């Protein structure tokens, strides 16, 4: 294993070095793009008007250079992503100790939304977009209210990639890094690996990998939030993935109403934008904008808009002369001012979106790539000088809209992933709220089921058992959900600004379950009584014991709810009828013993016993004409003794199937001396002592010696000699 481990570490170091080199090239390209890629003015104005005929040539030239820089940046981003994916594949392959990677189709390397694999690009501008990794809400609707609660199979499912990421996220220790930059680099690389893992998993397995690493991801993010080292745009992308995964499996969330993008944008000089009537615009998604009624509104109607401050440049010859006198090229100055203005818009957009849950909802409910198209459409409609037509100016206008929409999107994304101690960021708050909604919906669903079961009247033991099993299953699922809620890392605690989850009251359902458990136990005892009654004629003592047991069951009725009384009473009364209808066993020793007279025994043998606890007493034994053991003794051992009585002593086999109480009932029909000599603490002990006493007495009777020998050969005696 040592050579393999060494090879692994060497390979990882080489890949990481190459990755840092590519990132350095990317940063240089981005800086160059900021300095040279935009069209600006020398003041607060940011966009030059394509209507100015004398600047048409300059605009075309700048647009061409802009496209070249964007192409270079795209190539670097693509290369960075490929190297990042290779690193991820190698790491996960090694962490799986040579396990074969799961095969994936060519489309598995692309997001489900069809926007390509680029980590930082949208479909048109190829600048960073929040929707690149998010799959559409409609992608997987096979799940229902079980979006959070996992089955045992789901909990046990692991993959090499998931195991590696879980370990890496949980084991990340900022104290092992030197300096802020090193910590930030390590943390952001892990977030990028999470995004790469989801892309590689493809649409079919996206939800599985997200579920597998969910706890580790949110524990890592919450741990790193106070240090403020994470790229908040990466944080936003990761959380959008999780919220959309939850949306895809939760119908109760898909009907949530979110405010349209127009409510989050307004012109700085005229207030609310004039495009609120654009409900049928092709750039809008009609799926997420619902009317009032059954739909659930997420946010308050009073949504403040982000003020977009864009002014049309007023070209003047005087400003050109001033720049020439100062030795500054007009194009260089224009690019410098434009770049600064775009960065200013991005920062303002970031500040606007921090803690903005309504905006976060717009991001997660809008299909991938559509939100930026909506922003571009809003800009084109509200700033007409950006949407001119014409062969010469078309390219320039498109570039201006793209730059502005990207600046706004980047700022919003960065702000939505910025934490607000002691709570988390807006997307985290939204995820916590949505997760609680799903939990609450699941608990309410279980309560509805339990409520229906709790009002159903049981007809027979089978129905009682079925109802009890169903209510216990619902109660088990409810407790499982409660346990998951307590351990869910995505939920915010009260100290973190989270709202408490209102658990539906289940007192009535719990009371019915307790009643059914008691009823089930009563019916099992009734069933046992009926079983014992099915053996034919019954001894009087045993029948008496069974009837007393049924009477005792009737006294347990107060422990049942009223709805369960009819079933219990019906079963107990039917059992009583069965017991009372049985004939008494003709071999019952009690009635026969009373009919015996002293003349039926030809010879009595006298035995004296001393237990040590009473005075010595005498038992006389003999045999009757039927070959049965007969004893004659005082009714009681101590005074008043009650005189001598004659009784037939039952054979040990009579006690074989009797309970302890039934055995004592048999002894009550015999002289007290038998109980003193044979009664033990348990039924088995009593049977053993009785067998010993029976052998002792019968052995003294000459006529019964052969009978005793046969009983010994047949294993009738239960005592151990």
Automatic annotation (TrEMBL):
Residues 29-61, 94-154, 267-296 are annotated as: Disordered. Residues 118-129 have a biased composition (Basic and acidic residues). Residues 271-285 have a biased composition (Low complexity). This is Kinesin-like protein KCA2. Residues 101-112, 136-154 have a biased composition (Polar residues). It comes from Zea mays (Maize).
């Amino acid at each position: 294993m040592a050579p393999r481990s060494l090879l692994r570490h060497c390979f990882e170091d080489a890949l990481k070095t190459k990755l840092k080199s590519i990132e350095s090239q990317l940063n240089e390209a981005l800086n160059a793009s900021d300095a040279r890629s935009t069209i600006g003015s020398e003041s607060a104005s940011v966009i030059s008007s394509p209507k100015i005929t004398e600047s048409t040539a300059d605009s075309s030239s700048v647009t061409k250079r802009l496209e070249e820089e964007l192409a270079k940046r795209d190539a670097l981003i693509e290369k960075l992503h490929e190297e990042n994916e290779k690193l991820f594949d190698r790491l996960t392959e090694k962490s799986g100790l040579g396990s074969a990677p799961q095969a994936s189709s060519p489309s598995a390397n692309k997001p489900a939304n069809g926007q390509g694999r680029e980590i930082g690009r949208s479909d048109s501008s190829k600048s960073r977009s929040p929707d690149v990794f998010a799959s559409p809400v409609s992608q997987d609707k096979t799940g229902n209210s079980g979006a959070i609660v996992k089955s045992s199979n789901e909990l046990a499912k692991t993959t090499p990639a998931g195991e590696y990421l879980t370990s890496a996220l949980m084991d990340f220790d900022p104290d092992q890094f030197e300096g802020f930059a090193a910590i930030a680099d390590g943390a952001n690389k892990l977030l990028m690996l999470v995004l790469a893992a989801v892309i590689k998993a493809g649409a079919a397995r996206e939800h599985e990998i997200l579920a597998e690493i969910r706890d580790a991801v949110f524990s890592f993010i919450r741990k790193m939030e106070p240090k403020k080292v994470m790229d908040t745009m990466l944080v936003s992308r990761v959380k959008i993935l999780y919220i959309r995964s939850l949306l895809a499996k939760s119908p109760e969330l898909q009907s949530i109403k979110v405010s349209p993008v127009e409510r989050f944008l307004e012109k700085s000089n005229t207030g609310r934008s004039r495009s609120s009537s654009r409900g049928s615009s092709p750039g809008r998604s009609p799926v997420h904008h619902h009317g009032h009624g059954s739909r659930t509104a997420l946010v308050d109607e009073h949504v403040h808009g982000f003020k977009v401050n864009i002014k049309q440049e007023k070209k003047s010859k005087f400003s050109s002369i001033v720049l020439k006198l100062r030795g500054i090229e007009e194009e260089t100055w224009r690019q410098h001012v434009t770049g600064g203005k775009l960065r200013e818009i991005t920062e303002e957009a970031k500040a606007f979106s921090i803690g903005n849950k309504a905006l976060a909802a717009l991001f997660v409910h809008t299909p991938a790539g559509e939100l930026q198209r909506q922003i571009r459409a809003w800009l084109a409609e509200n700033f007409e000088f950006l949407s001119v037509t014409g062969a010469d100016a078309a390219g320039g206008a498109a570039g201006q809209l793209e730059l502005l929409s990207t600046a706004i999107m980047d700022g919003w994304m960065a702000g939505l992933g910025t934490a607000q101690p002691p709570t988390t960021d807006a997307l985290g708050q939204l995820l916590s709220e949505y997760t609680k909604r799903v939990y609450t919906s699941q608990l309410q669903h279980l309560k509805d089921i339990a409520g229906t079961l709790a009002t159903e009247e049981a007809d027979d033991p089978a129905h009682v058992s079925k109802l009890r099993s169903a209510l216990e299953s619902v109660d088990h699922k409810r407790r499982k959900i409660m346990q998951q809620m307590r351990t869910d890392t995505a939920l915010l605690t009260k100290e973190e600004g989270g709202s408490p989850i209102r658990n539906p009251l289940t007192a009535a359902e719990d009371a019915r379950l307790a009643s059914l458990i008691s009823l089930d136990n009563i019916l099992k005892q009734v069933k046992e009584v009926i079983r014992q009654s099915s053996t034919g004629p019954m001894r009087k003592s045993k029948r008496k014991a069974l009837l007393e047991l049924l009477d005792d069951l009737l006294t347990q009725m107060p422990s049942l709810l009223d709805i369960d009384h009819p079933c219990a009473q019906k079963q107990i009364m039917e059992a009583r009828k069965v017991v009372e209808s049985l004939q008494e066993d003709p071999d019952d020793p009690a009635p026969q013993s009373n009919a015996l007279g002293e003349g039926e025994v030809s010879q009595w043998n006298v035995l004296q016993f001393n237990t040590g606890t009473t005075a010595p007493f005498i038992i006389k034994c003999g045999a009757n004409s039927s070959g049965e053991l007969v004893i004659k003794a005082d009714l009681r051992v101590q005074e008043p003794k009650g005189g001598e009585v004659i009784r037939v002593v039952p054979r040990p086999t009579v006690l074989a199937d009797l309970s302890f109480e039934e055995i004592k009932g048999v002894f009550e029909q015999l002289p007290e001396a038998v109980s003193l000599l044979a009664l033990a603490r348990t039924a088995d002990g009593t049977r053993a002592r009785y067998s010993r006493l029976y052998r002792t007495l019968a052995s003294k009777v000459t006529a019964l010696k052969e009978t005793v020998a046969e009983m010994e050969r047949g294993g009738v005696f239960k005592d151990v000699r």
